[in-house]
Design a protein that fits this description.
This protein is mainly beta and 87 residues long. It has one domain. The chain is built from no helices and 8 strands. The strands form 2 sheets. The chain has a 5-stranded antiparallel β-sheet, with no helix packed on it. The chain has a 3-stranded antiparallel β-sheet with strand order 2-3-4, with no helix packed on it. It is globular and about 35 Å long. The model has no long low-confidence stretch (mean pLDDT 95).
Amino acid sequence: MKLIAKPIEMIASFAQNGTIHPLRFRVLNENQAWDIIKVNQVISVDHERKAGNPVIIYKCQSDIKGVCKIYELKYERNTYLWTLYKI
């Protein structure tokens, strides 16, 4: 996977116990237009600390422009920022 670290706008659901489930997101493409991507499957969830900040990394799978791709989404808990981390 290639590291790209692009900020995204996320729609997620939250369980009563606080678990976050990403549903779909949008990211600016090279033409400055929004691409909307539905998260088909969350493969794994890892909890880490980056520079002392708690981070959740979701390894996901989606159909992107007709191709099945695996990618990573990063959620920074202190700043509430979502990033398309690797693809």
